[in-house]
């Protein structure tokens, strides 16, 4: 970080991403220009790629991280175009809007997609997954770790165990956009093959980066793919670049987002300054506490009725029946808090979503929001 | 901009992108979090999309600008996957490394590519282009406005005139990565169909944005394409989003890079604070002056011998015969200037490149670099 910076007072963005950023992360965004192959930036990018290994608890040197300019969505294209050949079969576990969109992306690349859809606000039962994997042979399975539309967290470890037991060749692809940095994800141990995430959620950096992590066998498939179906999202093209930067050398395929990657280094340094399990525990505590307060003190209903499947980075709350949703969001905005509307197709207008990830969890923003929410409800009664 | 910021002293990055940024642009990168659908960010993005029309001198309301998270390279995928169907014919005018890479991208999407290659440091002769267009029917022609590897600027207006005369149905696709913001580009008047560019060159914003501009007929082709071949780079998916933001409404397909787009607003406001032709003239003056000094005062040879085809945003200079290239770059670095090595496959190691775009042109960086270059050469004699 090149200077002391204290961000001005502003409305707190407590949506499930983009989240609030630390002063140090924002200061890093204002880093003066550096050449993408300068020693300074190479050291930054090297640190980022090494830190990703720690974040994913991966010690296998044959796994590989990637940071591309793009959004979380780009990660779907990377998975679809690099890990699958046209016609290959994919089992999509759908826990909401984002799972379904991932399925749309897979179909664009001619994957043969089957979808197992969970009940709204629930996960796909493990028994159903096992049954389906026994019935059909799949080249890959996709799991939306946390579907931001429903606030449901899937049990990646348990699902992956079933895959290993029933259909070990099936690649395990995890959409970790709203989970990485808040929910535990043990890449090697759980046998995950590919995780895609983005910068603007629990990783705590402004939007603009697609962050990926791949296993040895998934990478081998990508590198040996006969027919390329993407240029910008091609792992064949990006792998030597990432390996170069991680080993301390510059390389060029497309210009990296120097400032945002510098901010990513700052945020990953902050995240890894304590054991990551401490971070996950802290998020779970704040989340559990917020959910309890919302239900017990404020008398509101939250979306996953079964708290075992409720994500820890956000809370989806039904609007109370006697209150007009937009009025509540407006009240909160007047009090300086931005929360998100609901986006699940069947529930639009019926609920709102509060993000509690990263900086906000440590800076006490959630307590302030809780107070504002209580006041707003009282005023609207 | 939310605060006063003066960037610290640092090595000046005078490469053909990323360029140096203004204090105001860097301050905008540190904008506190805003929701991507907040009124604040919608106003920012609306302004950006409206400003792009002015930058491209377009008054046709049926043209459309796009700003995606990505790099310049992503623009090639957008062109290849949205404007062409597999098997369609493309004539690539190659003036260097980047033209050839664009051709590689087009082939990934199964375009049928013919390449007309210019002599190194020259453009493809207009007569040769006309002859080829008469010989074969092309669905599109690609022009690298400025190929950063050779510092050659193509005459987009003249080429487009030939296309209109000989083969008016052919889409005119311009790679403006190293031209937009420094070379004139009259989108409507010249009959251009698609321009792709990036944030980190003459547009003056940190890397991370792919910036696109499309004509009515090219957009119609993209929207009516039968088979989608990309998800993240799909204009079918992005067009309603950009139209919404430009008309002052939020919309969601993938999370936009809020901070970098805010910096883009700041930079476009700076660029449009004077008539753009004044900006182009200023860049031409600084470029002509630098080239003259390098040749006449320093006795060095520059790459395009014919100055009529020399780009104005950078200068490619051969290392003098009696001096070791890396030594010269090291000297310059010690004096606080970062310039770029050469990347044309046939000339690697034989030349270096100096970027003179945007903030550096106005802040007197080029004069300082000239002095350091003279001193370095003297010391290495």
From TrEMBL, chains A, B:
Q: Which GO terms describe its cellular component?
A: peroxisome
Q: What Gene3D superfamilies does the entry give?
A: Aspartate Aminotransferase, domain 1, Type I PLP-dependent aspartate aminotransferase-like (Major domain)
Q: Which residues carry this modification: N6-(pyridoxal phosphate)lysine?
A: 201
Q: Which domain of life is it from?
A: Eukaryota
Query: What does the entry list as the binding residues for substrate?
Result: 353
Domain Aminotransferase class V span(s) in chain numbering: 33-344
Q: Which GO terms describe its molecular function?
A: alanine-glyoxylate transaminase activity; L-serine-pyruvate transaminase activity
Gene Ontology terms describing biological process: glycine biosynthetic process, by transamination of glyoxylate
InterPro entries reported in the protein's UniProt record: Aminotrans_V_dom (IPR000192), Aminotrans_V_PyrdxlP_BS (IPR020578), PyrdxlP-dep_Trfase (IPR015424), PyrdxlP-dep_Trfase_major (IPR015421), PyrdxlP-dep_Trfase_small (IPR015422), SP_NH2Trfase/AEP_transaminase (IPR024169)
Q: What class of enzyme is it?
A: transferase
**Do you know which Pfam families this protein is assigned to?**
Aminotran_5
Keyword Coiled coil attached: no
The UniProt record lists the keyword Iron-sulfur: no
Q: Which family does it belong to?
A: Belongs to the class-V pyridoxal-phosphate-dependent aminotransferase family.
For this entry, the protein name equals alanine--glyoxylate transaminase
Lineage, please? Eukaryota, Fungi, Dikarya, Ascomycota, Saccharomycotina
């Amino acid at each position: 970080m090149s200077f002391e910076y204290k961000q001005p007072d502003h409305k707190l963005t407590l949506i499930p991403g983009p989240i609030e950023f630390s002063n140090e992360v924002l200061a890093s965004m204002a880093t003066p220009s550096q050449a993408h192959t300068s020693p300074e930036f190479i050291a930054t990018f090297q640190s980022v790629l090494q830190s990703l290994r720690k974040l994913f608890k991966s010690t296998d040197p044959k796994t590989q991280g990637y940071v591309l300019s793009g959004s979380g969505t780009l990660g779907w294209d990377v998975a679809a175009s690099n890990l699958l050949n046209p016609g290959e079969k994919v089992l999509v576990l759908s826990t909401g809007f984002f799972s379904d969109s991932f399925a749309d992306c897979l179909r664009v690349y001619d994957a043969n997609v089957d979808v197992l859809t969970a009940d709204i606000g629930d996960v796909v039962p493990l028994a159903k997954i096992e049954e389906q994997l026994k019935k059909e042979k799949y080249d890959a399975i996709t799991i939306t770790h946390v579907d931001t539309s429903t606030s449901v967290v899937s049990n990646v470890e348990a699902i992956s165990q079933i895959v290993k037991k029933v259909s070990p060749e099936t690649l395990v692809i995890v959409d970790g956009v709203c989970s990485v940095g808040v929910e535990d994800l043990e890449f090697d141990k759980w046998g995950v093959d590919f995780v895609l995430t983005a910068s603007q959620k629990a990783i705590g950096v402004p939007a603009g980066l697609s962050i990926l992590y791949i296993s040895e066998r998934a990478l081998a498939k990508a590198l040996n793919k006969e027919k390329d179906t993407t240029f910008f999202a091609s792992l064949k093209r990006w792998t030597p670049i990432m390996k170069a930067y991680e080993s301390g050398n510059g390389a060029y395929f497309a210009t990296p987002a120097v400032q945002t990657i510098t901010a990513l280094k700052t945020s990953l340094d902050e995240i890894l300054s304590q054991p990551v399990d401490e971070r996950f525990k802290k998020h779970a505590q704040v989340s559990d506490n917020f959910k309890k307060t919302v239900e017990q003190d404020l008398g509101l209903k939250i979306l996953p009725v079964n708290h075992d499947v409720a994500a820890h980075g956000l809370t989806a709350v039904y609007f109370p029946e006697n209150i007009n949703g937009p009025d509540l969001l407006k009240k909160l905005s007047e009090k300086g808090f931005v929360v998100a509307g609901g986006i699940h197709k069947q529930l639009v207008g019926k609920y709102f979503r509060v993000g509690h990830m990263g900086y906000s969890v440590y800076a006490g923003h959630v307590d302030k929001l809780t107070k504002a929410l209580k006041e707003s409800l009282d005023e609207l009664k």
